[in-house]
Amino acid sequence: MALTTLSALVCALVLGPAAGAQSLPQEPAFSYVQSPNTTILGQYGHSPAVYPSPNATGIGGWEAALATAKAFVAKMTPEEKAIMVTGYPGPCVGNILAIPRLNFPGLCLQDGPLAIRVADYASVFPAGVSVAASWDRTLMYERGLAMGEEFRGKGAHIYLGPVAGPLGRSAYAGRNWEGFSPDPYLTGIAMEETINGMQKAGVQATAKHFIANEQETQRNPSFDSHGNIIQEAVSSNLDDRTMHELYLWPFANAVRAKVASVMCSYQRVNGSYGCQSSKVLNGLLKTELGFQGYVMSDWGATHSGVPAIEAGLDMNMPGGLGLYGMGWDGNSFFGPNVTAAVKNGTLDQARVDDMIVRIMTPYYALGQDHGFPTVDPSTADLNTFSPRSSWITEFNLTGESSRDVRGDHADLIREQGAAAIVLLKNEKGALPLKAPKSIAVFGNDAGDDTSGFYNMKDFEYGTLAAGGGSGTGRFTYIVTPLEAIKARAAKDKTLVQYWLNNTEIATSDINTLWIPKRPDVCLVFLKTWAEEGADRTHLDTDWHGNEVVESVASMCNNTVVVTHSAGINALPFADHPNVTAILAAHYPGQESGHSIADVLYGDVNPSGRLPYTIALQGSDYNAPPTTAVATAGPDDWQSWFDEGLEIDYRYFDAHNINVRYEFGFGLSYTTFALSDIQAKKANTKGGPVSAAPPAQPAQPGGNPALWETLYTVTATVRNTGRVDGAAVPQLYVTLPEAASAPPRQLRGFDKVFLKAGKSQTVSFPLMRRDLSYWDVITQDWVIPSGDIGVSVGFSSRDLSQFTKITPLSL
Ligand SMILES: *[C@@H]1O[C@H](CO)[C@@H](O)[C@H](O)[C@H]1NC(C)=O
Ligand SMILES: *[C@@H]1O[C@H](CO)[C@@H](O)[C@H](O)[C@H]1NC(C)=O
Ligand SMILES: *[C@@H]1O[C@H](CO)[C@@H](O)[C@H](O)[C@H]1NC(C)=O
Ligand SMILES: *[C@@H]1O[C@H](CO)[C@@H](O)[C@H](O)[C@H]1NC(C)=O
Ligand SMILES: *[C@@H]1O[C@H](CO)[C@@H](O)[C@H](O)[C@H]1NC(C)=O
Ligand SMILES: *[C@@H]1O[C@H](CO)[C@@H](O)[C@H](O)[C@H]1NC(C)=O
Ligand SMILES: *[C@@H]1O[C@H](CO)[C@@H](O)[C@H](O)[C@H]1NC(C)=O
Ligand SMILES: *[C@@H]1O[C@H](CO)[C@@H](O)[C@H](O)[C@H]1NC(C)=O
Ligand SMILES: *[C@@H]1O[C@H](CO)[C@@H](O)[C@H](O)[C@H]1NC(C)=O
Questions:
Q1: Quick one: which of 120, 18, 14 has its CA closest to 461?
Q2: Who's near 617: CB < 8 A, 6+ residues apart?
Q3: Which residue intervals make up region (Disordered) (predicted)?
Q4: Cα(620) to centroid of ligand 8, in Å?
């Protein structure tokens, strides 16, 4: 979804990185101009045509709901049909109007991935990046379920999340934190679990943004003052194998989890807009993955009527034209144009019927036609996107206003925030804290927010627990690190003093701050902002974080650094001898302070693991976003995914580049060991495994044979230390050289809690897709012949257990 208002969008574009004091060096700014690569695709990308748009069949469990949806459509007039596929202004960020004649109450669509944003008395959960860092399937599911309860309680039928695009091709992309991880396997599991939880609560999930939506810069076209396009949106140009093995992969998990909706993306793919690419929507999504729900546009991502519909778009959001389609000006590519196009024979009535069948099938499948709560009337007043003044129809807003839907979710959020914290460094027994006599707290991320709790732009003072844009949340409160530490320290009568002005800490002689001679520990809280509509300009922490650490560590030999961050940070101070511990706490949601205090004091043993790589320096990352073009041609914004499969650890491993903290890494207050790896072939009905999956009609998720377990790998994990804690054993596969795959790819993980001294067997089911590569010639997943290496360990570069399997041998 887009930002709330146009002015917010404009703000997002003009606000630069953190502005700071004159005397401090500028953070190293990122600048990169990419020239068109004519080798791969010709001058620009081209996307093959795939028509007609497939009808939904309900295959895979929605057959009965589909029949009900068809009966509903049969009762509709042409005008009602046009309204059903078009958004109108109303109380929610997206609204499908009610049809009282048919007892249909309409649909309420709400942001966003970590909270119901347009709401009061709702919870703010950990962001996607935190969820990924937890590596905990149960947590992923429970968060989805709890959020689902809140959406439902507020009368929202549709949750605009979860996010697998951006996947995280570039460390700089502004919305990576809304999604999970640049690893498609980890993101795929997080998508699936979130959707399962959300839809268990009876709320439709929306997998977004489909697809290759990997940067914010020029995600939309630029317009002149008359609304004419000057330059089209950036085009993500990528090859078919990369599409399947990276970007499409987690969406396949989402479709398999029977996600109700998929949101098509703003940018172009191989030159075609995401919401009118027939290859992407009709081909990959509806045919290959067997998707049975509906495609909705991102807000203003629709650039045509009939062509978009024929390419597979089913619902136009927010419905109007306007600039970016944001403002409702009474005109729409859909709406009355749909009726007219059917009447004059341009558009097949059957296609329109299928659009509505696709929209109504999940509605019936999830039981939304019975006892679904009404839209909370307070929503209308909080919705700056389509304020009451813009409504062109009346809405029947009944029921209690300002319903408190938070339940006991605060406890869950506190646990989830703590479970997602990654301990990166811990030396000289720095952590956990043991009743220190004196604590000194530093950094503008430690204390209270001074500008309210609705993050729409970067702010200097106050802790950061969620990023900005449509993916933020409206906090009802935030527990700050400082407040939680003060409360916890009071139990030990610890002296707690604090300095929260980064500029002052970074520029003053630290000795002039009257810091008690020798604090037992100095806790430095740093933050890194990211938001929709802008890519990050650097990978350092904001507000002179590096200088703050240098300053504190110059006088404090026990400096513990905590980052609240959108994701990847270069950590140049990591080797400083006085920096004894580093924790990446990402965006933990409303209980942020409690979550970190629980870990600092050892009430919770840290068990988060990096869902990405921290390189030795920012310039080590490849695949930067395209931030400028040197030419002015309307099509010249091109982003070439030349790195193919080599993003994040796949790149660093393929090129043997040393990194600071590798993908999958994270410390604990205890230690673990692995032993006894074994691989067992599943009973495949006697015969040998075929290289390609046996042909079968696509179910949601594609050919069902891709999801069959071919091997089960087991290993024993033991807690070898003295405290209880959770281990995250990870499995990576190495395909034979002939498959030209990255050296290692994650294909299994588990999170196991173990009491000190205890051990447990973990098992990793390996499905056909996990052992295959996408063959562009046969257009199918293929298991390579030869040995496939299987490694199990505690990170992508800490692999102690090896075995090999040879699936194609008898
Ligand atoms: C264009 O792509 C080809 C094939 O991947 C690659 O060898 C070449 O370096 C690329 N050129 C530029 C300018 O990026
Ligand atoms: C993009 O173009 C490449 C190269 O021609 C092709 O392999 C791929 O299938 C295309 N993908 C889409 C979605 O158009
Ligand atoms: C969809 O179903 C209708 C009948 O309801 C049929 O006329 C049309 O050809 C079908 N479209 C496709 C692509 O199969
Ligand atoms: C139909 O679509 C066109 C753009 O193709 C738009 O200019 C026009 O206003 C639309 N008509 C209505 C009634 O919305
Ligand atoms: C049919 O109607 C559509 C939508 O109003 C319009 O774009 C198209 O030009 C019309 N075609 C003909 C042949 O009248
Ligand atoms: C408004 O909604 C209430 C509760 O759902 C219902 O009882 C009432 O009939 C509705 N009124 C109209 C005019 O639709
Ligand atoms: C923070 O410190 C700087 C440098 O000492 C000073 O200029 C600024 O006014 C301080 N900000 C606040 C809010 O006190
Ligand atoms: C580490 O801290 C001590 C004070 O405890 C200080 O004397 C020393 O200079 C610091 N080391 C560095 C490298 O800053
Ligand atoms: C810091 O320095 C003090 C005084 O020299 C020493 O007692 C203490 O052990 C040091 N702490 C660390 C973590 O090195």
A1: 18
A2: 570, 572
A3: 683-702
A4: 29
- Check: CB of residue 375 under 8 Å from CB of residue 115: no
Structure tokens, 764: 């990793």
Question: Where is 253: in which H helix or E strand?
Answer: helix 249-256
Over residues 518-527, the pLDDT tens digits come to: 899 999 999 9
449 classed as catalytic: no
CB 179 within 8 A of CB 191: no
pLDDT at 25 over 60: no
Q: What tens digit of pLDDT does each residue of 32-66 get?
A: 444 444 454 456 678 999 999 999 999 999 999 99
Find where tokens 């961050």 sit. Answer: 565
Strand order in the sheet with 638-640: 272-273, 268-269, 235-237, 638-640
What homologous superfamily does CATH list for 670-805?
Immunoglobulins (2.60.40.10)
Tokens of 232: 């089209």
Which tokens belong to 290?
């067997």
Closest ligand 6 atom to residue 399 Cα is 4
Q: Which residues are registered as beta bridge partners of 672?
A: 719
**Structure confidence by residue, pLDDT tens digits, 554-591:** 999 999 999 999 999 999 999 999 999 999 999 999 99
CATH 2.60.40.10 region(s) of the chain?
A: 670-805
Q: Which residues contact 165 (CB under 8 A, 6 or more apart)?
A: 179, 208, 209, 210, 211, 212, 213, 214, 247, 251, 265
Residues 358-386 pLDDT 10s: 999 999 999 999 999 999 999 999 998 88
Task: Classify domain 412-612 by CATH architecture.
Answer: 3-Layer(aba) Sandwich (3.40)
pLDDT at 97: 96
In b/e form, how buried is each residue of 250-285, taking b as 16+ CB within 10 angstroms?
bbbbbbbbbbbbbbbbbbbbbbbbbbbbbbbbbbbb
DSSP-derived 3-state class of residue 565: strand
**120: which residues sit within 8 A by CB, 6+ positions away?**
378, 382, 402, 474, 476
**Span from the CA of 612 to the centroid of ligand 7 (angstroms):** 35
Q: Where does the chain hold its CATH 3.40.50.1700 domain(s)?
A: 412-612
Ligand 3 binding pocket mutation candidate from 50, 55, 292 (most atoms within 8 A of CB)? 55
Write out the residue limits of the CATH 3.20.20.300 domain(s) in the chain. Answer: 63-390
Asked if CATH classification 1.10.443.10 holds for the domain at 63-390, the reply, yes or no, is: no
Residue 441, helix vs strand vs coil:
strand
pLDDT tens, residue by residue, 381-426: 999 888 898 898 999 899 999 999 999 999 999 999 999 999 999 9
Residues in contact with ligand 7 (CB, 6 Å cut-off) = 501, 503-504, 507
| Residue of 102, 396, 401 with the most ligand 6 atoms within 8 Å of its CB, for mutation | 396
User: Residues 412, 144: contact at Cβ < 8 Å?
Assistant: no
156, 520 Cβ separation under 8 angstroms:
no
pLDDT at 636 over 50: yes
Mean pLDDT of 616-635: 92
**Whole-angstrom Cα distance, residue 176 to residue 623?**
14
d(CA 726, CA 421): 12
DSSP bridge pairs for 204: 158
Q: Whose CA is nearest to atom 13 of ligand 6?
A: 396
98, 88 contact by CB (below 8 A): no
- Beta carbon of 511 within 6 Å of any ligand 5 atom: no
Whether 64 is in the pocket of ligand 3, judged by its Cβ within 6 Å, is: no
pLDDT of amino acid 632: 85
Other C-beta atoms closer than 10 Å to the C-beta of 342 total 20
Report d(CA 747, CA 113) in Å as an integer.
25
Q: How far apart are CA 729 and CA 747, in angstroms?
A: 11
Atom from ligand 6 closest to the CA of residue 396: 1
For the chain, helix (H) and strand (E) counts, in that order, are 20, 31
C-alpha neighbours within 13 Å on the C-beta side of residue 397: 20
Confidence of residue 707 (pLDDT cuts 50, 70, 90): very high
